[in-house]
């Protein structure tokens, strides 16, 4: 379609911000650049041969059935396995019927927004917050309100203020190893956030792709245990097994489930059935906990390498948010320094990161940046942080 016809685009699509990260990844993906910019898991850990075996077994045992259309809710054996894992790992009782399999958690955002939001409705998101969720919600043209996150979680006083002066349909939160900051809500913070939300007519969406990637420290309580009637849980196998299957899920109450199923049916009928059966077979034949140990072993080693390189090479006045797991570190540069400008210098030194800018709704904190440590080996991390440290020091002069 030529430019002159672009007025035919919907208001809905015009209201969505362009993916800034996509642009950054385009320039930072060259092989001679040390990139801390990506958000992808480390592919060298994908359980390729176990998945090959699971796929062969599904085709041998289920043949034609595995290649047929299926139901919208998702494969029952897979939903059973997810429910069992909630019970074993978090002591949470959810029934398989309350689980809807989605095309990654990314689709969960879309379906929830489709089912809950009218144009102009208030919603609350974390600031900084997960870009993919912000983009997905934007399509439904809500009024996005924000609450700051710090090292301990959400700013509860601010949350209370925002809740008092708005009528949000939901609060969206990533309480474990948040993207972009890597921080987790403390137990006290969770209790305070839950108690605050519970006073208002709203819901909490707990998105949790990284919760099982804990390197150290105690597991914290799920919002589902604190305010079950108000919490919708999202989960995904993307960071724990593989992302290409696009298998995520929503744990939703009965009153919402029918609407989510209708929304999903209208979108794509169902999530790839073959992937669901292979995932289910993989989970039955293999220990996810053992696989997680391998992931955690590598990621935590690389996280430590990044932290010690930061300690050695970054100048005073640069701070790093505390993180016990996940994939990211969040760095705050000295006041007044722009990470966008630093990005250009860093690229010249062949190192890349994501400036904090795109994760903010409204006024960004210009001096922040996200560093991923999962796809770069420890030695290369040291070299990259050394180069970045040099760029920061140059900017300070
Ligand atoms: N939520 C957060 C916080 C994420 O970081 C990601 C992936 N980067 C997703 C959801 C999307 O995950 P999925 O692959 O399940 O769509």
UniProtKB/TrEMBL annotation:
Species whose genome carries this gene: Cocleimonas flava
Subunit structure: Homodimer.
UniProt-recorded name of the protein: 2-aminoadipate transaminase
Keyword Transferase annotated: yes
Family indicated by similarity: Belongs to the class-I pyridoxal-phosphate-dependent aminotransferase family.
Obligatory cofactor(s): pyridoxal 5'-phosphate
One of the Pfam families matching this protein, by short name: Aminotran_1_2
Domain Aminotransferase class I/classII large, first and last residues per copy: 45-388
Keywords: Aminotransferase, Pyridoxal phosphate, Transferase
InterPro entries for the chain: Aminotransferase_I/II_large (IPR004839), Class-I_PLP-dep_aminotransf (IPR050859), PyrdxlP-dep_Trfase (IPR015424), PyrdxlP-dep_Trfase_major (IPR015421), PyrdxlP-dep_Trfase_small (IPR015422)
SUPFAM superfamilies noted in UniProt: PLP-dependent transferases
GO BP annotations, alphabetical order: alpha-amino acid metabolic process
GO MF annotation list: pyridoxal phosphate binding; transaminase activity
